[in-house]
Amino acid sequence: MGNVTHLDKSDVLSGLFASWDALDRLLTGLSEQQWRTATPLPGWNVHAVIAHIIGTESTLMGVSTPDVDVSALEHVRNDFGAMNERWVRHLSGESGADLHQRFLAVTGDRRKQLSDLSDDDWAAVTQTPAGPDSYGRFMRVRVFDCWMHEHDIRDGLGLAASDAELDGPAARLALDEMAAVMGYVVSKLGQAPDGSRIAIELTGPLARVIRVAVDGRGQVVDGFGGSEPTATIRMDALLFTRLAGGRVASAPVELGGDREVGGRIVERLNYVI
What we know:
By secondary structure, the protein is of the alpha+beta class. The chain contains 12 helices and 7 strands.
């Protein structure tokens, strides 16, 4: 297998717990109608998104996935999606208030479990949504997933995050996770040719630059050794996450250098299952 990702446990858990805290604040006081409001995810309302998170964290604690037939649902396209949907259907009859309490209980149990995890278990290689990697990498993927779902709910309810709400470890770690796969996105999905130097310039409160050099395969790098990028992609960081996550079909973007290559990468930016 490739290199194992070693991540600081306290840093990743601070982001994951902050994401759960943000969801708790967002859910507090929602009406039952708001719980049933559609989100950008096909077939899922706010209630379903939280049921999915509850299901994932329950599964990670060893709870069996409910036996629910979801084969007839058009938006379920693979085994992973089927597992998610079984939890969503299983919990669909609960009120929003009861689901909120279940969310707090499950994430409370997970906080203790994760805080007590040994360093060896944190570093151990396991199967993650990004392939075999450390359990720590898996938990950074969890930060990404929970943070993205916070914004799915915000989009559905029309409650955009303030700059202060975007500023924190959860957003940083979510973008770290997305940046880590940009080599694959740029070279495999975007078909950037060998020799390409792609600079993805993200603006707004979550501003950063992601640089990818292509030499046989795409690799995220700290710099281009003094060379200029062959193509630049400039866009708002939050919109970048929505586009890469398949939540929106398009977003305002500025292209520089090789616009054909840059445009192709943007068109194929969605890599999330």
